[in-house]
């Protein structure tokens, strides 16, 4: 019933999709990522998603995302099978080594859904700048 900080205010029932995963990056190394995405079934407007990326040493990066979706994408069976979702993201600070990190990039994701389980594969491409 509470939207994560930084999300847009939505009317009526707000649904939340939680995602978690891991990956590797040449600069960061191994990382864990947790994302939250919210949308309203009343006005069918997407909210901003965001999350946290944590490296192997416990340093974190805060992420803000904005998917390029329209109200017509938010049907009762969202996420539908083989939905292609694109968008942008920003790195907005963090903790430890990444306290004042800044960066941005693009997200390309594919949703697969067999009616029982949905999965989303992400491809993120972007850059970040470490603080001086």
Structure description:
There is one protein chain. The protein is mainly beta and 132 residues long. Helix content is 0%, strand content 58%. The protein has no helices and seven strands. Strands 1-2-3-4-5-6-7 form a seven-stranded antiparallel β-sheet, with no helix packed on it. A hairpin with an 8-residue loop joins strand 2 and strand 3 (49-55). It is globular and about 45 Å long. The N and C termini lie far apart (40 Å). The model has no long low-confidence stretch (mean pLDDT 77).
Number of strands: 7
Q: In what order do the strands lie side by side in the largest sheet?
A: 1-2-3-4-5-6-7
Shape type: globular
Provide the low-confidence segments as ranges.
Answer: none
N-to-C span = 40 Å
Helical region count? 0
* Mean pLDDT level: 77
The main sheet comes to: 7 strands, antiparallel
Helix content: under 10%
Radius of gyration in whole Å, from Cα? 15 Å
Query: Structural class, judged by helices and strands?
Result: mainly beta
% residues in beta strands: over 45%
Would you list the SSEs in sequence order as H and E? EEEEEEE
In summary, what is this structure?
The protein is an all-beta fold and 132 residues long. It is built from no helices and seven strands.
Using brief descriptors, characterize the structure shown.
132 residues, mainly beta, seven-stranded antiparallel beta sheet, 7 strands, 0% helix
Helix and strand arrangement:
Blueprint: E1 14-25, E2 29-40, E3 49-55, E4 60-67, E5 83-95, E6 102-113, E7 118-129
Antiparallel strand pairs: 1-2, 2-3, 3-4, 4-5, 5-6, 6-7
